Amino acid sequence: IHQGSSKIRPALGSICTCVHFLKERGFCATPDILLADFDLNGLIDEDEKATDQSKPEPENWIAEGKGGHIIMEAIDNPYYQDSPIALDQAKETLSAVAGLHAAAWEDKELLIKADKWLSRGSYHLKTRNVKELAGMEQSWEHFRSNFGESDPALFDRCSDIGKRIKNLAEYISDEVSPGPTDRYATLSHGDFKAMNCFLPRESTDRGVILVDFASTGVGLGMSDVAMHIHHAIKAEDLANGGEEVLLNHYLDQLNTQLGPDKAYPKDVALRHYRLACADYFRFLLGRFWKSASPETFEKRKDSKNTVLMNRNLESALAFLDRVEKHVTEIEKERAACLA
After folding, report:
1. C-alpha distances out from residue 263 to 56, 68, 93, 127, Å
2. pLDDT digits (tens, 9 = 90+) for 103-123
3. Which of 74, 4, 1, 75 is nearest to 38 (CA)?
4. Which of 83, 187, 251, 256 could form a disulfide bond with 304, CB atoms 3.0-4.6 angstroms apart?
5. How distant, in Å, are the alpha carbons of 11, 39, 40, 140, 168 from that of 281?
6. Nearest to residue 238, comparing CAs of 81, 98, 85, 82?
7. CA-CA distance, 65 to 204, in Å (whole number)?
8. Phi and psi (nearest 5°) for 81?
9. φ, ψ (nearest 5 deg) of residue 231
10. Whether pLDDT at 60 is above 70
11. Cβ-contact 208, 95 below 8 angstroms
């Protein structure tokens, strides 16, 4: 923790979440943890949720002696990181996260504990700055003014997508935020991008290793899947059935581990996926597209840690096309609920 930081609560929350998760983890696709602990006494309450945005920043805080430490296995030559990744690699990463989801699936005792100690996803509405949602229309108009000529028909169809996603944001967030005792609740990684996956160079029983659990908490598994598929895989690979291949692979892997008594019905899973894609779009638009331009795309085109839709126009347009269709379905769903 750096004394000069103007906002330290996000850093404190990340320390708490990582340490709590790694000490209590119940699945094997993580580095071996040798030691994990923290001391934040006087800075953050032990019983407060790590990403509670309603709490004020600590005043007159002293950093000396405060912080946390995690000593873990070094992951080196047998493994590598990359982004974007191919479909076969994505199957491996989705198999790994299916293991995380299956390990906590509808485990009420575990999830009640996790709901107290852990976080919400990195793009969850309740963890984001309220200015992002308030500025949806302006963010969309900025993006449209910079890229609208690339596909006029698509941008015409999406002409008011900023307003539409803003109006749906609370509904979508509620639908993708199960409580710890709700059906289909599990532990969600929360920041499931390709660079948080170590891929094996050769076939191994251990498989993919997942890292960075600073945003892990109770949620839907499909929130991880929706982020991962669009953050990490090229539009050309998702086209012509590639997206469906990955969704079916994830569901097969998950349901094999869950067994018939806890199976995730495909119709429910796909509804959750549509909602999660729209939720991720809300984050993308409010956080990144508000300042996007051809120049920033060019500057970031080789940045492996940057979401593809913020550095590759083909991926951005394909996601926009897909999300607008999802938003239309969600609008119909919500209207039926209100009728």
Report:
1. 41, 38, 20, 30
2. 899 999 889 988 877 777 788
3. 1
4. 83
5. 25, 36, 34, 11, 12
6. 85
7. 41
8. -120, 150
9. -75, -30
10. no
11. yes
Residue at 79: amino acid letter: Y
Rounded Cα distance, 321 and 318, in Å: 5
Helix axes 161-175, 313-338, angle to 10 degrees: 70
Copy the structure tokens of residue 106.
């509808």
CA distances from 195 to 5, 228, 232 (A): 26, 10, 9
Strand arrangement of the beta sheet that strand 79-80 belongs to: 79-80, 197-200, 209-210
Which residues, 6 or more positions from 303, have their beta carbon under 8 angstroms from its beta carbon? 311
Euclidean distance between CA atoms 189 and 217, whole angstroms: 7
First-to-last alpha carbon distance for the chain, in angstroms, is 51
Q: What kind and span of H or E run contains 232?
A: helix 221-232
Matching residue, tokens 């998950």: 254
Give tens-digit pLDDT for 246-279.
Answer: 999 999 999 999 998 899 999 999 999 999 999 9
In tens, the pLDDT along 13-39 reads: 555 555 555 555 555 577 777 676 666
- For residue 118, what are its two tokens? 């852990």
Q: Tokens at residue 280, please?
A: 């991720």
Identify residue 50 by its one-letter amino acid code: A
Task: Give pLDDT tens digits for 300-323.
Answer: 999 999 999 999 999 999 999 999
Q: Determine contact, residues 315/306, Cβ cutoff 8 Å.
A: no
Q: What is the mean pLDDT of residues 59-81?
A: 73
pTM of the model: 0.85
Q: Are 213 and 17 in contact (CB under 8 A)?
A: yes
Any bridge partners for residue 71, and if so which? 35
Which of 291, 297, 274 minimizes the C-alpha distance to 222? 274
Nearest to 222 by CA among 97, 122, 55: 97
Percentage of the chain modeled with pLDDT above 90: 65
